[in-house]
Write a structure and sequence with these properties.
Double Stranded RNA Binding Domain, 4 helices, single chain, five-stranded mixed beta sheet, 14% helix, mainly beta, six-stranded antiparallel beta sheet
């Protein structure tokens, strides 16, 4: 190869590497970690060529091919991203939007993806094929998990957070704490139903956020909560007993250290959080603004995932510099950690992008270095997932959903187990 040509090739490779290193918000689904991006982009272009841009559709993906659940989940994620990039809007069924059906099939030559596109009073078809030689090999992570949900409670009024209070001794009834924008309610099991035992009012802001946030933290014999610029401490023995203070001024001295443990500070009048931190090795103070966060310790190293207000999920390795170790786009605004008894033992739950008029999903990912690999099928909900919180046990997470079919707020526990 002539020296000049070799030099040009080296420059091109270096430029491509530089692009992925410095461009913010590059998604794992846009890198070779998701090998289905190119055929998804090709199919999205064909769909838009038939339907036209700026159309609103619902997406239904059916897998009848030999792809595994994790591979089909990665295909769906790539399709969603490319359809949105092609200027299609993926909406919930209650909006009356027509359904875009995509079937993942195959023939003797390889994979065949078929899109049935609604057009006026008929449906048209677009297809892309992947020869067997072009089908990517299975990813390194082959363990497939089962993500399950259990409905705990539903009501008309908004739910910000909830907590199951486990019986103190055999025979004691199950109890449930439900945090709302203006009150905290305690429910107790009576036969096969939960009945309201007591509600207490909570401090509110003069100009509250349109989408208020609040959260509960369970301790061994009491609980803490943060709401509307106030920190509260309470017990739920036979009755609720709650005391609240202004988070910046009034917390009694004996509770200051405990309340400081509540690192998340809800920005007054907003629906996101602020966390202030000191730069390691200096006196410099910085702050992070985010809508959701998750973290755990892996191999002695603390990991933290922040969903920043710009919609990008940033991974921080807290033993290193405060610069993000990785960025993930194409995810929704809610994340939470959850433990399993298999695989890498700790996974990240994420929602998908969309607004409050759309159905939502929660999906589990393994974090391998700076890559995210889907290890569960998407778990569907009939509306947006408003909150994802860690449960009292590391093996559970909590999801709060606004069901667009019933207009009820629903509280779910989520678990992740081995197996298909």
């Amino acid at each position: 190869m002539p020296a000049t040509r070799r030099l040009i090739l080296i420059i091109i490779v270096l430029l491509l590497l530089l692009l992925f290193l410095v461009v913010p918000g590059v998604s794992w689904s846009q890198t070779p970690q998701n090998p289905w991006q190119e055929p998804a982009r090709e199919l999205a272009k064909k769909v838009v060529a038939i339907s036209g841009p700026r159309q609103t559709v619902t997406l239904a993906v059916r897998n009848i091919s030999s792809l595994s659940d994790s591979e089909a989940a990665a295909v769906r994620l790539a399709l969603e991203g490319e359809l949105r990039a092609a200027d299609l809007r993926l909406a919930a069924k209650p909006n009356g939007a027509p359904e875009l059906r995509i079937t993942l099939s195959e023939n003797l030559q390889g994979l065949l993806w078929i899109a049935e596109i609604p057009r006026d009073d008929s449906r048209e078809v677009a297809m892309v094929s992947l020869p067997k030689t072009a089908v990517p090999p299975p990813t390194a992570t082959t363990q497939m998990f089962v993500l399950q949900s259990k409905l705990v409670w539903e009501q008309d009024d908004p739910i910000l957070d909830f907590a199951l209070l486990y019986p103190g001794s055999p025979g004691d009834p199950q109890r449930l704490l439900v945090l709302e924008p203006t009150r905290l309610s305690l429910y107790q099991a009576d036969k096969d139903r939960l009945k309201l035992q007591q509600s207490v009012p909570l401090p509110t802001l003069t100009n509250p956020a349109r989408d208020p946030r609040g959260y509960l933290v369970l301790r061994d014999d009491h609980f803490l909560l943060s709401l509307a610029g106030n920190l509260c401490r309470g017990v739920a023995d036979q009755m609720l007993n709650v005391a609240c203070w202004d988070m910046y001024q009034d917390v009694p001295r004996q509770y200051v250290e405990e309340m400081h443990w509540l690192e998340l500070s809800i920005v007054p009048g907003r629906n996101y959080f602020r966390q202030r931190f000191r730069v390691e090795g200096s006196d410099e103070q910085r702050e992070s603004l985010f809508s959701s966060a998750a973290g755990w310790v892996e191999g002695g190293e603390p990991l933290r995932f922040d969903v920043s207000v710009d919609g990008v999920v940033r991974l921080y390795r807290l033993n290193a510099d405060r610069a993000p170790a990785a960025r993930f786009s194409g995810w929704g605004s809610q994340v939470s950690g959850i433990s399993s008894n298999c695989g890498r033992e700790r996974q990240l739950l994420v929602t998908r992008p969309g607004d409050w008029t759309e159905f939502d999903v929660v999906q589990a990912f393994d974090i391998i270095g700076t890559k995210a690999v889907a290890v569960s099928s998407p778990l569907d909900f009939h509306g947006p997932v408003k909150e994802l919180w860690p449960g009292k046990s590391p093996h559970t997470a909590l999801a709060i959903v606004l069901n667009l079919k019933t207009n009820h707020y629903e509280a779910y526990t989520l678990t992740l187990s081995c197996g298909r």
